[in-house]
Amino acid sequence: MNIKDLKNLILDSLSSSEEAPKQALPSDQDVFGKIPAVPDDALVVVPMRGTVLFPQVVLPLVIGRKESVAAVQHAVRSEKPVGLLLQLNDNDEDPGPGQLYQVGTVAEILRYLTAADGNHHIICQGKQRFRVREFLPGYPFLVARIDVYEESEATGKGIDARVVTLKQQAAEILNLSRQAPAELINAIQSVTSPGMLVDLISSFLITKAEEKQQILELFDVQKRLDRALDLMNYRIEVLKLSSQISEQTQETMGKRQREYVLREQMKAIQKELGEDEENAAEIEEIDQAITAAKMPEEVEKHARKELDRLRRMQDASGEYSMLRTYLDWLTELPWSVASPANIDIARARDILNEDHFGLEKVKQRILEFLAVRKLNPNGKSPILCFVGPPGVGKTSLGRSIARATGREFVRTSLGGVHDEAEIRGHRRTYIGALPGNIIQGIRKAGTNNPVFMLDEMDKLGTGIHGDPSSAMLEVLDPEQNSTFRDNYLAVAFDLSHVMFIGTANVLDSIPIPLRDRMEVIELSGYTLEEKAQIARRYLVRRQLESNGLTEEQCFITDRAIETIIQEYTREAGCRNLEREIGAVFRHVAMRIAEGQAEHERVDAEQIPAILGPRKFESEVAMRTSVPGVATGLAWTPTGGDILFIEATRLPGNGKLILTGQLGEVMKESAQAALSLVKARAQPLGLNPDLFEHSDVHVHVPAGAIPKDGPSAGIALFTALYSAFSERTVPSDVAMTGEISLRGLVLPVGGIKEKVIAAARAGIKTVLLPKRNQRDFEEIPDVVRKQLRFVWLENVDDALKVALEGAQQNPSAAAS
Length: 815
Description:
Strand order of the largest sheet: 1-3-4-5-6
Largest sheet: 5 strands, mixed, barrel
Number of helices: 29
Helix content: 40-55%
Oligomer: single chain
Distance between the termini: 106 Å
Radius of gyration: 47 Å
Strand content: 15-25%
């Protein structure tokens, strides 16, 4: 079939559907009055909405607008063709020259008819391309002067190759469409003219009017072929993908229909057997829950396998309830539920400052951590571990991070956990089996990316049931926790989106492999000024609300708070401080409740009457009033503290007696200190015979508390020298540092905590190893201003500063 046959087919089909007889066309004068004649080089122009006509193509068109109807009738009456131009905007009801494309098609009107419903129909055939030169005024419809493009036959191997490819693509599209008429396929294959072929294919196989217009505007046949090939390629890919999706959908629907029929049959069988219908409803509920959980593909496959097992079980079976509980756990885990990523650094800074006073370096590191998370959400950020004494705000920092990031917060305590199953869960074969604390916390949070706080990591234990710290290695390793397998679930759960934060009081008891997976952030104790600010900003308000008081009913002065801090608490954190403030407010609440007062002002003078005699006082002056006593600095899990070293000489034969529950390292430090004093007896001005006829007793008070470590070496040396020389160590001097048998003062840890404890105890001068000067920047500015620092290289520097009446060594670096 050729183009002529296709044209006749369209005309015949439209003629057969005509419902109304032809009507006489009204004259132009009857409608618009006298219309000027259209010049020979001009055409009546009809705007088209969403339709592009190509040369040699026959199309039926519906004419609706009044001006377009008049234009068509004028052309029919004059027996002239019309020019068809595509509108730029289909919604424009009255397009002018500026709202039309400038390239269109000259169309011959083959038939004009008016249907019974009053619509006007024309059948037209495209003749030639034209370009608008100018639009002419003075007509009731659009008239334009045009330049007609004469089509020339293109030849050559390149053109022939493109023609063959285009026909192949057209055949493939028509086959994929499945509804294309055979006449169109034959017409396309019979066309030999390249220009006519591309116009025919563009008219019927390209859907978008803008793309058709692009081809219409290409006067060069080769460019027209190339553009058509590109569009046809895209059309083929879309049709292939659509066909593939349709097949997959049909396959899925077929499978679901089969499952539905089988389930209905199973229900009928169960009903005949008299089985409980509630069991079937329960199975259906679990099935829907599995679908709603949006599990990973492997997990969902496993869950449905277990559901099939449950469906075949009797509900009286012992395994039925176990399997039902297991499926409940699987469906209730947040496999695909996540809190939205919402990290605002400025807001996070405000929240941290609002919730915590001080801790500037800790806050800065947390903000850096959050900034990295914001810029690289899919990155493997380090796992933070807050290490510090009790009551300094480790857990509350985790809550603040959760609030700053908009995530859920969940906490689990690892203190006393000695069973690996507490982390990995129990296997389902055991009665009462449950998942581990990690999966339980994720379920409680309801999202797969909460802030998960692992509290008291330094108190993990070991037992006959395995090592929980080893199980934590997989949880806290970003390279492994994306496929964390709980023994109860027996499927992998992705923990890589969870923000884990650990807390500990000391690092020594955390296994090294576990410690290596975390970035440690140390929180030291608070100074007197920081505690006063924390009490005023947070603790007072919290305890007022807790005891049902208002600020108008009770006011506590700053002096009263400082008195509580200095005389009733001695800690690195603020927990006991809050308890004592609560005790004060309870006393006031009782007086107000009894009607003895309407409002109270609590000052420092009233504190002993409320809290009783002061619990702590400075023992420095009393303990150092005799020779042989030196004040050392110690670090404990609860923060820094001062440590008294007492040495006395008594008749004997040179024995060394050590008391005070000292550890092996501290005993060795005492032995080294005595040996160093003996070796330097003459340079130090001591009689060597004293050591042969005297026993030395070294005692560290608070004997019920174990003490160990090498950092008391310099204090032991100073106390021994003071005992033998009978010279007194000033009460406001404290020291720390390890010593060697060569007399060197070696660096130690916990400088910041020890110095803060010294300031809290009323010390004025601290002696520190010179190699610890790198820790000076860690000391708070308030503490630096309270203390005088002397940096020691050897024991001689310590003796010249620590003994009364001795001149300070000019070489000692003081600040």
